[in-house]
Write a structure and sequence with these properties.
311 residues, alpha/beta, eight-stranded parallel barrel, two-stranded antiparallel ribbon, 10 helices, 42% helix
Length: 311
């Protein structure tokens, strides 16, 4: 049985895609708005070259945010680890954790929505799952201060070291919807970051994660969560239009593919949608809000958190 969270869930928000088009002062004001509203963390997706060349480097983005608003935690949701050499990824994560101690969580995913993204990085998309398994294991060992010797079809490391060793470990979660992702979380990570699934599937998935971990003799402090887009507004219709427009522009897929798992409307509607996930053990709720303004979005996410805490 998946564990029920012992404390209130941590709620994250993803800044707008044009965040770095803002002036430095406006960026600071936006992050302060999030923190003042009671939002716990910012999370960032990761793509090297997604549909038409657009992308976000999650670790670089979080590093840029780390010194602006120290009240906010930093969450990579999720890093396409197979597109990076484990030594480089481990160094970047180590540096970010040194700059923002105790504030970093790294989600890892295999991607695949745009197979060409892997091809242009010289990676066979068919190997992305196996590469991720190997890379995640290596990165965690390197961050733990281990001298790593490893050779396989993907990587060749001899006496590989990352120093300085961190004083506390960086939590890792695995994102994805498949049973392979769920088992990867149980074998190699500290939790499952689900997306686009029902609360029933979330409960079954977290139970499978923990069963898999137990079979491996692992007992992490679980950090299960759900990551969703939401439409915010005074009514369901206008909020749905806002989130549908942005999701179709980002994914180049009709919104109908996402509608079932994309709540839209006032905070009460969104909180009601999310409550079963919290009851099933979600301790992280990462929300990408789509509304009329950053202020409206931050207020809505904060209101959703408050409603869930008080329910």
């Amino acid at each position: 049985m998946s564990s029920v969270p012992a404390s209130e869930p941590k709620v994250g928000i993803s800044p707008a895609l044009d965040f770095f088009d803002l002036s430095p002062q406006a960026r600071a004001d936006t992050l302060a708005l999030y923190a003042d509203a009671g939002i716990d963390q910012v999370f960032i997706a990761d793509h090297v070259s997604f549909h038409n060349g657009m992308g976000i480097d999650a670790l670089t983005y979080l590093a840029a945010l780390s010194g602006i608003e120290p009240r906010l935690d930093l969450y990579a949701g999720v890093l396409l680890l197979a597109l990076r050499h484990p030594m480089v990824a481990a160094r970047q994560i180590n540096q970010l954790a040194l700059a923002a101690p105790g504030r970093v969580t790294v989600g890892v995913g295999v991607g695949g929505e745009d197979r060409h993204e892997f091809e242009v990085c010289g990676i066979d998309p068919r190997t992305r799952g196996r590469r991720t398994d190997v890379a995640l294991d290596l990165v965690r060992r390197l961050l733990d201060g281990e001298s790593v010797d490893h050779r396989d079809e993907f990587y060749d490391l001899q006496q590989a070291l990352i120093r300085p060793r961190l004083s506390s470990p960086v939590p890792f979660v695995v994102g994805g919807r498949s049973d392979a992702a769920v088992r990867r979380a149980g074998t190699l990570a500290d939790g499952w970051l689900a997306s686009w699934c029902s609360a029933q599937r979330f409960a079954a998935g977290t139970a499978l994660v923990e069963e898999t971990a137990a079979a491996c003799g692992r007992t992490p402090a679980w950090r299960h969560g759900i990551q969703l887009w939401i439409g915010v507004g005074g009514d369901v219709e206008s909020a749905t239009r806002s989130v549908a427009s942005r999701m179709e522009g980002f994914y180049h897929i009709p919104f109908q593919a996402f509608a079932k798992y994309t709540p839209a409307g006032p905070p009460e509607v969104i909180a009601e949608f999310l409550a079963p996930y919290v009851a099933a053990g979600a301790t992280t709720l990462n929300l990408t809000p789509c509304g009329e303004s950053p202020e409206d979005e931050a207020r809505a996410v904060a209101a959703v958190k408050e409603l869930l805490i008080c329910s």
